[in-house]
Amino acid sequence: MERQNFIERYGAVLLLAIIYSVGILGHSLENFLPLMKDLTPFVLLLSIVMVLWFTRSDWNRKVIIWAVSTFVVTFTLEAVGVATGVIFGKYTYGPTLGPGLFNVPIIIGINWVIIIYAIVSILTKVTDNLFAFVFLTGSATVAFDFVMEPIAMHLNYWNWDYGIIPLQNYVSWFIISSLAALVYFFLKQKPQKDLPIYLVIIQLVFFLLLDIILVR
Prior knowledge:
By secondary structure, this protein is mostly helical. It has one domain. The protein has 7 helices and 4 strands; from the N terminus they run H-H-H-E-E-E-H-H-E-H-H. The strands form 2 sheets. It has a two-stranded antiparallel ribbon with strand order 1-4. Strands 2-3 form a two-stranded antiparallel sheet. Strand 2 and strand 3 form a beta hairpin. Helix 3 packs across helix 4, helix 3 packs antiparallel against helix 6 and helix 4 crosses helix 7.
């Protein structure tokens, strides 16, 4: 029984860790890099499907409405941002993240929801203070984006004008994720499943190591 519980709890985590470890190795080998870039949207999609499936007991009506609303808002802001350069700065998406709508890959909006959800999942276990909850969510989201940006540009996920990441990008993501956290706080939900948290940690390590291997 203990072994079964261990597999149920950590099997998905182990599988994700293996997938992203293979990704790190593949990205590090020049001959495999094109294949790794082609597989990127499928790996992200698989990661998201696994998270949604293994945490489905946490996704009640309130959380689903929050997640869908967060996706619609973030995706809309991304579309406006790409078209105008007003919200995040001037940038364009490359082909690496797969098909999109209004020049924004659909998968990126879903992944941002998972990232924010993972962060609020952690913070529901850490603090009941509204200000701390909102501020820490915004700060953690920006920290994740800060780590991801250099390697994202290197792999042609997206590209900033002149190769410079503007400060307004981080300010905007702080505000957006903080507002999402503010709404989530009042849902009074405490997720029981930890897989989203592990996914974000795995992705963070993935970007950190590739940043060291390919960019630095």
